[in-house]
């Protein structure tokens, strides 16, 4: 990615910073010396012309102690690196009390004035910190080194990009994170604005978490800005520390066009070889260009890289050269940043534009050399030369062993370390120690399989997770000095009279001196795939007798069988035995108009194809209906209720020559009948109309497509009245053409609903989305009644209520004496006194009433506003 930067001339910079006071940018780094002793370096960039200066700088070590560090560069006066910019370096050492996390920090009273995104910056303290973690589990740590200075410039309406060019001496992984600039006490600065506020483009300012590219789109405002970010270090998945950088960016207008560095690619190189490539740049305005580079490889002593600075007009080039060594091996790449600066002499402001390109160089360990594989009985012994990069403390920690069956022909790409999974190799062992250069593969004690070509690759591994290139592939196979099993095939399928065909290959490389004859085979059988509980079947005294039909009695319909053949002689007893091999066992899972076939087996050879046969009830022959390279097959388009019968033929081989090829075995013959066990599909609830006032909820659902609808027998509506309550069947709709339902009840309509569809075979679909509603309870009392026996308004009772469980009603006369009470929501008071039963006189009576309302969340009590009711007897009116 191109990086367009600016270097200001002093006149323009001074015009912007006329009110500036002191601090521009800075960071804190540290390195481990010994034990708990660390060296800490503070680097600040300040305004050279400011009256404030710091020959000494206070530091807080993070453990509750402080110190004062003396400036050491420039003879103690600092170094002027650009007009009105001074670089100051303060170094000190500190012994920490123990393992812990420490925030090393310093605070200085003033930043420079006029920072656009820091209000009143001249009075805002400058604060930076770094996190130093001392961990017994993770080890001691050195912070990153930042090779690119934290003073950069940019132009209005052009992308600004900065990269700190971070290098971690320990090879830890790095990540980057934008943060707010900090002020007094390390707290966020009031009113601080991130840079995305000041842009004409995408309103963004981001930092790439992996590469560290800080990108500010199209700055819109001229002036000085500050931004801060963290460079975090990670080791074994844990954060081991960070460095905080607070940097300054100055934005100006310019007519100049930046130079362009021609595209450079990241590279990987084997340790011990020379990296050499050309870097060139050109200037669109034909200005003079200076081309330089920074980065860790250029700072090593010894074995540093070289990149002679070059200057030219219009175009310029130079060659980067680095003789790598074993001590440069690491997982993390090295970064080298190339910078092209033009010498602009056009109209004011006279600024020099910059282009940056960063190349990532990964130094990879050479592959282990001269691997050899020698068969030893049922094992294979590997040997190889010691890793050539054995310089302590950078030597490899040991080796990884990878294995596959059969040769692959792997050639690693330039940056492809280790053994990639796509090769089919698997890591089978770790051999610790660089001097341990042998390994015996016995398949974790189970022994390797005769007839298989075993291929190996070896990789050196390092402390930081780096891997070498893989060794060349080396292959071998076991000697054919024991029998090798080849066939376990079902000959007759029957519950009691089944028969199995068993075959093996005789040993052709038997050491008859070590194991003299006569010889005998012994055949063992077990039910199942694993060969557990083997039982003796029969024996053979002729080495050429290598086939057998086993008739048991065996239940080949319901069982698979596994076999082992042992080789014996009279002098030694057991000489060796085959691997366990089982028959192919077929299982069938019925479904709607389809049978799903799957099969299992346990064999030492590789099966590469399976042919499926189905019995033809018309021709009375077995027809091949398809094949599979996996252990499953689906036979579709069948008639439900009709029986179909199948068997499977496996086709395989050993990877070594000299064995029967192809190896063909048959499963048992088994039958099944497809039936409809597939539930119908069901659409979601689509429309919900909730009318609480009329105490009903109406919902409609999407009618399934025709293929599903024709299979639906009925819909079931489920209802849960309370949150957390179980769903019960509310109703069943037997007409599959109906796709709506209205639920009404004055008792309660609160709750949740969903719907399922069930077909004629009682297969129920998954349910629709849930809908949930709540009640709107209502309860009111009239304020007059006339209990005169005329059949009109003779009793006091509530208006029509909704969603009420019960009530607590008390009615009083004007002297406060209770004359009636009830908990019945449908109470009826005839105007008589509750205790005596005598009619009460006309008058005003007062009540208190609370109602228990029904909601989805439960019962809630609500008190009605105290009220009155007027009792009127017409006889009283007449008498008056």
Structural class: mainly beta
What oligomeric state do the depicted chains represent?
single chain
Low-confidence stretches: 1-20
Helix count, DSSP H or I runs of 4 or more residues = 3
Number of strands: 62
Overall pLDDT: 91
| Gyration radius from CA atoms, angstroms | 44 Å
Q: β content, as a range?
A: over 45%
Amino-to-carboxy terminus distance: 106 Å
Number of domains: 7
What fraction, in percent, of the residue positions are helical?
A: under 10%
How would you describe this structure to a colleague?
By secondary structure, the chain is mainly beta. It has 7 domains: 4-251, no CATH class; 260-362, Immunoglobulins (Immunoglobulin-like, Sandwich), CATH 2.60.40.10; 372-476, Immunoglobulins (Immunoglobulin-like, Sandwich); 484-582, Immunoglobulins (Immunoglobulin-like); 585-672, Immunoglobulins (Immunoglobulin-like, Sandwich); 685-773, Immunoglobulins (Immunoglobulin-like); 784-879, Immunoglobulin-like. It has 3 helices and 62 strands. Strands 2, 3, 6, 7, 8, 9, 11, 14, 17 and 18 form a 10-stranded mixed beta sheet that branches. Strands 1, 20, 22, 23, 25 and 26 form a 6-stranded mixed beta sheet that branches. Strands 57, 58, 59, 60, 61 and 62 form a 6-stranded mixed beta sheet that branches. A hairpin with a 6-residue loop joins β34 and β35. It is flat. The termini are far apart. The relative contact order is 0.06.
């Amino acid at each position: 990615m191109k990086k367009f930067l600016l270097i200001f001339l002093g006149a323009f910079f001074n015009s912007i910073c006329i009110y500036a006071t002191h601090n521009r940018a800075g960071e804190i780094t540290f390195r481990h010396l010994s034990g708990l002793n660390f060296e800490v370096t503070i680097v600040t960039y300040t305004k050279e012309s400011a009256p404030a200066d710091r020959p000494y700088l206070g530091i807080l070590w993070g453990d509750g102690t402080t110190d004062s560090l003396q400036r050491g560069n420039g003879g103690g006066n600092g170094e002027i690196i650009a007009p009105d910019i001074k670089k100051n370096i303060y170094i000190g050492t500190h012994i920490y009390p123990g393992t812990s996390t420490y925030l090393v920090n310093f605070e200085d009273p003033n930043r420079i004035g006029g920072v656009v995104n820091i209000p009143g910056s001249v009075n805002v303290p400058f604060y930076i910190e770094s996190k130093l973690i001392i961990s017994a589990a993770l080890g001691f740590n050195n912070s990153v080194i930042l090779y690119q200075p934290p003073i950069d410039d940019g132009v209005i309406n052009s992308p600004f990009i900065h990269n700190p060019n971070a290098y971690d001496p320990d090879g830890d992984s790095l990540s980057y994170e934008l943060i707010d600039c900090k002020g007094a006490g390390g707290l966020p600065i009031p009113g601080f604005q991130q840079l995305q506020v000041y842009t004409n483009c995408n309103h963004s300012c981001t930092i790439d978490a992996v590469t560290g590219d800080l990108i500010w789109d199209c700055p819109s405002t001229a002036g000085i800005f500050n931004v801060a970010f963290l460079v975090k270090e990670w080791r074994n998945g844990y954060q081991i520390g960070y460095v905080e950088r607070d940097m300054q960016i100055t934005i100006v207008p310019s007519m100049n066009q930046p130079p362009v560095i021609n595209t450079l690619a990241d590279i990987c190189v084997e340790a011990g070889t020379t990296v050499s490539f050309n870097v060139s740049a050109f200037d669109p305005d034909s200005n003079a260009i200076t081309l330089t580079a920074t980065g860790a490889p250029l700072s090593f002593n010894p074995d540093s890289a070289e990149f002679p600075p070059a200057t030219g007009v219009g175009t310029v080039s130079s060659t980067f050269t680095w003789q790598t060594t074993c001590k440069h091996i690491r997982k993390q790449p090295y970064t080298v940043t190339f910078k092209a600066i033009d010498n602009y002499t056009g109209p004011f402001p006279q600024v020099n534009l910059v282009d940056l390109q960063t190349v990532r160089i990964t130094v990879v360990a050479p592959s282990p050399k001269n691997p050899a594989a020698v068969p030893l009985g049922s094992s294979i012994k590997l040997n190889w030369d010691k890793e050539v990069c054995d310089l302590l403390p950078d030597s490899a920690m040991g080796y990884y062993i990878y294995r596959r069956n059969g040769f692959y022909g792997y050639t690693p790409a330039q940056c492809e370390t280790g053994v990639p999974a796509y090769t089919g190799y698997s890591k089978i062992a770790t051999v610790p120690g660089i001097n341990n250069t042998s390994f015996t593969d016995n398949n974790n004690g189970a022994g390797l399989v005769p007839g298989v070509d075993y291929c190996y690759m070896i990789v050196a591994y390092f402390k930081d997770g780096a891997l070498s290139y893989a060794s060349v592939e080396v292959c071998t196979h076991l000697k054919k000095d024991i029998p090798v099993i080849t066939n376990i095939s079902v000959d007759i399928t029957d519950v009691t009279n089944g028969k199995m065909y068993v075959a093996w290959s005789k040993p052709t490389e038997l050491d008859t001196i070590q194991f003299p004859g006569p010889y005998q085979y012994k055949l063992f059988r077990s039910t199942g795939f694993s060969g557990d509980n083997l039982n003796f079947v029969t024996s053979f005294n002729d080495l050429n007798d290598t086939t057998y039909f086993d008739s048991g009695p065996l239940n080949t319909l319901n069982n698979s069988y596994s076999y082992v053949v042992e080789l014996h002689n009279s002098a030694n007893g057991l000489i060796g035995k085959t691997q366990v091999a089982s028959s192919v066992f077929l299982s069938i899972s019925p479904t709607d108009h389809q049978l799903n076939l799957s099969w299992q087996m346990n064999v030492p050879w590789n099966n590469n194809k399976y042919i499926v046969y189905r019995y033809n009830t018309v021709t009375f022959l077995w027809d091949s209906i398809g094949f599979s390279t996996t252990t499953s097959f689906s036979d579709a388009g069948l008639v439900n209720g009709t029986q179909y019968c199948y068997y499977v033929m496996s086709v395989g081989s050993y990877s070594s020559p000299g064995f029967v090829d192809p190896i063909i075995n048959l499963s048992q013959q088994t039958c099944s009948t497809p039936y409809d066990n597939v539930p119908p599909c069901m659409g979601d609830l689509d429309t919900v109309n909730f009318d609480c006032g009329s105490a009903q909820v109406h919902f409609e659902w999407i009618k399934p497509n025709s293929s599903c609808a024709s299979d639906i027998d009925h819909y079931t509506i489920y209802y849960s009245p309370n949150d957390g309550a179980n769903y019960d069947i509310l109703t069943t709709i037997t007409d599959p053409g109906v796709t709506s339902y209205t639920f009404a009840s004055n008792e309660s309509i609160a709750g949740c609903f969903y719907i399922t569809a069930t077909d004629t075979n009682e297969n129920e679909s998954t349910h629709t989305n849930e809908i949930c509603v709540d009640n709107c309870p209502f309860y009111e009392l009239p304020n007059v009644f006339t209990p005169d026996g005329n059949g009109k308004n003779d009793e006091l009772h509530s208006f029509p209520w909704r969603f009420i469980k019960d009530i607590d009603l008390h009615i009083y006369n004007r002297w406060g004496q209770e004359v009636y009470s009830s908990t019945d929501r449908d109470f009826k008071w005839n105007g008589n006194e509750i205790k005596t039963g005598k009619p009460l006189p006309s008058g005003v009576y007062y009540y208190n009433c609370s109602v228990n309302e029904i909601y989805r969340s439960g019962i809630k009590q609500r008190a009605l506003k105290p009220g009155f009711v007027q009792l009127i007897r017409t006889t009283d009116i007449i008498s008056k």
